[in-house]
Amino acid sequence: MSQLILYIASSLDGYIAATAGEVDWLFTDQDYGYTDFIASIDRLLMGRVTYEQILTFGNYPYSGNQGFVFSRTIQRDRDENVNFVAGDLVSFVKNLKLQNGKDIWLVGGAAIAKTCLENNLVDKFILSIHPIILGEGIALFPPPLPTLSLKLEHCQTFDSGLVQLTYCNG
């Protein structure tokens, strides 16, 4: 069975993006384990806003993986990069985790992450905390959320000040 992994970056004060969605504050000076992580997954889940943000960066960077974008507004089944899903997120994720394959990356979308957390679907959290305080923005975990007990699996520090924490659920 595949694991659903929330692999995401956050500011020290808990924001995944600035208020208008900007992520130009993210460190790109090192790999920070990204290459190894990408090799461990073969499917991605994200929300429409996250997908549209990714498309502004240039070429779609995940063409080697099967992508799923959850949207209530897009009225097509797929484009050249991803499949669009408008159905029940919880059932979809449960079924996806049962399929053969590598792990699944929960890329982003605060609403999708919140639903997955509320339904205890996230198996692992890999959080890269950047040493920056944004003051406001898009929260990593907008309240309310259920209480989840996590177990620290790994902690790594980098010279840049970034700290990467890996937790497993349960």
Walk me through this protein's architecture.
The protein has helices at residues 34-39, 48-55, 89-98, 110-118; strands spanning 4-11, 15-17, 41-47, 66-70, 82-85, 103-108, 124-130, 138-139, 150-157, 163-169. The chain has one domain: Dihydrofolate Reductase, subunit A, CATH 3.40.430. It is an alpha/beta fold. An eight-stranded mixed beta sheet has the order 5-4-3-6-1-7-10-9. A two-stranded antiparallel sheet has the order 2-8. It is globular, with a radius of gyration of 15 Å. The chain contains four helices and ten strands.
Write the layout of secondary structure elements.
Blueprint: E1 4-11, E2 15-17, H1 34-39, E3 41-47, H2 48-55, E4 66-70, E5 82-85, H3 89-98, E6 103-108, H4 110-118, E7 124-130, E8 138-139, E9 150-157, E10 163-169
Oligomer: single chain
Along the chain, the helix and strand elements come as EEHEHEEHEHEEEE
Helix content: 10-25%
As for the number of domains, it is 1
Q: CATH superfamily, called what? A: Dihydrofolate Reductase, subunit A
| Biggest sheet statistics | 8 strands, mixed
Provide the CATH architecture: 3-Layer(aba) Sandwich
Cα-based radius of gyration, to the nearest Å: 15 Å
Instruction: List low-pLDDT spans.
Output: none
Under the CATH scheme, which class?
Alpha Beta
Number of strands: 10
Task: For the record, give the distance between the C-alpha atoms at the N and C termini, rounded to a whole number.
Answer: 16 Å
Number of helices: 4
Global geometry: globular
What is the average of the pLDDT values?
93
Q: Give the percentage of residues in beta strands.
A: 25-35%
Give the strand order of the largest sheet, numbering strands 1, 2, ... along the chain. 5-4-3-6-1-7-10-9
- Summing up helix and strand content along with how strands pair, one would put the structural category as alpha/beta
Q: CATH topology, what is it called?
A: Dihydrofolate Reductase, subunit A
